[in-house]
Amino acid sequence: MLLFTLRRLGVMLLTALALTFVVFFMTNLAPNLEKLAKSEASVRMSDEDVTLWLDRNGFTRPLLVRYGEWLGAVPGWTRTAEDGVITGRCIRNGLTAETAPRYCGVLQGDWGQSTVFKQPVTEILSRSLGATGWLMFWVMALMVPTSLILGVLSGMREGSRTDRVLSSFAIASTATPEYVSGVILIVLLGSATAGISPVLASWGWIEGKTLFQGTATSAMDKITFWNFALPVLTIALYGIGYIARMTRASMTEVMTQQYIRTARLKGVSFGQVIMRHALRNALIAPFTVIMLQFPWLLNGVVIVETLFNYKGFGWTLVQAAGNNDIQLLLGCSVVAVFVVLITQLISDIGYVFLNPRIRLS
Amino acid sequence: MEELSWPVIFAKMAWHLLPVWIALVVTFALSIRFKRRLGLYGKLFDSTVAMSGFALVMFWVFTAIFADIIITHDPLGQISGMKNALPGSPVKGAEGTWYLLGGDSLARDVFSRVVMGARRVLAIAPAATVIAFMVGITLGLPAGYFGGKLDTLLSFVANLVLAFPVILLFYLLVTPEIRVTGIPIILAAVLFLFPVIFICVLLNSRYFTNPPQRNLYVGVSLVIGLWAYSGLAFNLDPLGVWSMDPNLLNVFVSVVFVNAPTVFRIVRGIVMDLKSRDYVAAGQTRGEGPWYIMLWEILPNARGPLIVDFCLRIGYTTILLGTLGFFGLGVSPESPDWGSTIDDGRRLLAVFPHPAVVPALALMSLVLGLNLLADGLREESLRD
């Protein structure tokens, strides 16, 4: 078990290095750097000026060396100008050439400065991850129990009417990506002119103009049911269908096993069989699915935060990518890549841990 | 003129979609009549789920085919005074015409745009899925069959791509700047080579015992394949038949790139399961080559799960294309494709919902149809 975990960790680190290098390469392509030079210095720079600026700011050295610097494995560059002033990668924020550290990269906790927000990347990321954390928490709190209950209910009697209805719902929800369900939910529940809100408002059942709010900007300060229900529902809806279908498949498989029949023939009641015998085995597969769903949620988070204007991680990623904010985009990718890899690791280990047939062999 | 009421709007839309209904009725009548002779396709018509899914998909396919006849206005044309017009508004200055589903924020007809958008979506999604499948199969078969170092390497690369958050990959791959660097062309050059390799190996392994026939088949497919390859990947077709807009190539390549590793994993898994079967051992004893066994013994036996996944994957690709459009990546702002139309419409969503809701429902119904079709196919193929 320990060896397995260590090997998985090794592969994970290798993957993380490879992925961050790819992102570094893609964000540091020549056209992006040129755009950066023009936005940082002056829009009307000549090509020679751009080259000069890039050279002065250490962007012309080999890609691998720059990647090493960004990572913190290679000492940051320094440069002595003709008038004796020393500039360097680590010399900023009031540090002088003497006091600045030699290494300043991601490993040292220096993630760089965002060019759009004019703040350190770590600060922006911790703030936006906090916001997204709340979103994810409520999504999980809604999605996991709902989908498991739906899956178990439809899988316990395969082919019954309940099964048909719930399966249709699951198929429909997997066919509705977040940008579609978000739009439909806003129109249905969060619009002052369409959907059910005007009707409810004219009956005097709701206080404001709309049942739910169509944007989640105010949720940055205070999360309420009114401003947070729609984004959470939108993300959860897409995942519910998928997890419910996986749970159903695993539940129907368990229900055909010999030991379930034996238990029924012994005279154990149907409810007891489900609770005692079937559920424990049926929930192993969905656990993996739920963990692997995290990268998916990341996708959904980006769409929903853009749609509802909620300034979390996904919104930051879109801003960074749209405005050529290289340091912030790199920071976002590191976080995203690690979220994906860690959930994969947990799902692998969890699967082995939960399944005695693999654990003991 | 007066505004139309909802029943009249639906009646008028149904009238404009008449070619689609006729084509649907003909397809269903012929298929049900001859369903016993049509193999797996015929079996679709034994299950209600599969039939309804098939009907939804074919509805959009026929809409895309007959789009030129169906549209009521130019999908890019702006008519003054029709900005954000409500559904059923009469067109100003033109007697007897209406914006059936209203106008968008640039005063264009929503109905015609959705119909034209179907053509765009249905041109890219299935083609990209087919290429992704060929890449996945060509790499997945040897990885699963031979195993060893090749498998380890390919699986590592596949996992690398899969660990990338899709949106981030799109933001990195589908930007206007990246075209300058030539990365999309390199990716296209690699990815588009696989269909040619796949078809040549497929034919070669089947006919290599009969060299004249083999030379003819492989030669013809090489000529056509490389001809298309030069045009699609490098835009260097001497005759100018095959070409691809650079924007479209960019989108196409990234969608294939995202999909291929999943197909690879599925194919690899199936092959690892099937290669211990008796018929594979029998083939090996007969002295059949590994590629013949992979392509002509194992692959046909893996078709059930692959066809089901193919349907699901077209739906998934449609969703991905919509996501790209939603973030305004890689498509021209004029383009009527559903994702970017939803993105345009969402700015005024709370006031004028119709420009965003109509393409949203269209996209949902197409993906729903594909999912239902896949579900029906799965049930029918399990029944054998």
Low-confidence stretches of chain A: none
The chain-level mean pLDDT of chain B equals 86
Oligomer: heterodimer
The total count of helices of chain A amounts to 15
Structural class of chain A: mainly alpha
Question: Judging from the principal axes of the Cα atoms, what is the shape of chain B?
Answer: globular
Structural class assignment of chain B: mainly alpha
Helicity range of chain B: over 70%
**Major beta sheet, strand line-up of chain B:** 1-2
Count of discrete domains of chain B: 2
Number of extended strands of chain A: 2
The count of β-strands of chain B is 2
Reading the helices and strands of chain A in chain order gives: HHHHEEHHHHHHHHHHH
Could you characterize the architecture of this molecule?
The complex is a heterodimer of chains A (361) and B (384). A two-stranded antiparallel ribbon of chain A has the order 1-2. Chain A has helices at 2-27, 30-40, 47-56, 63-71, 121-156, 161-174, 178-189, 197-203, 225-255, 258-266, 270-282, 284-308, 313-322, 326-354, 356-360; strands spanning 78-80, 86-88. Chain A has a domain at 121-354: MetI-like fold. The mean pLDDT of chain A is 83. The N and C termini of chain A lie close together (11 Å). By secondary structure, chain A is mainly α. In chain A, helix 1 runs antiparallel to helix 14 (326-354), helix 5 crosses helix 13 and helix 5 (121-156) runs parallel beside helix 14 (326-354). Chain A is built from 15 helices and two strands. Helix content of chain A is 68%, strand content 2%. In chain A, a hairpin with a 5-residue loop joins strand 1 and strand 2 (86-88). Chain A is flat and about 90 Å long. Chain B is mainly alpha-helical and 384 residues long. Chain B has two domains: 6-117 and 354-365 and 372-383, no CATH class; 119-315, no CATH class. Chain B has helices at residues 6-16, 18-33, 39-43, 48-65, 67-70, 110-146, 148-163, 166-173, 176-181, 183-191, 193-207, 211-234, 246-274, 278-285, 290-301, 303-326, 338-345, 354-383, and strands at residues 89-90, 98-99. In chain B, helix 4 (48-65) crosses helix 18 and helix 10 (183-191) runs parallel beside helix 13. Chain B has 18 helices and two strands. At the A-B interface, helix 1, helix 2, helix 6, helix 7 and helix 12 of A face helix 7, helix 8, helix 9, helix 16 and helix 17 of B.
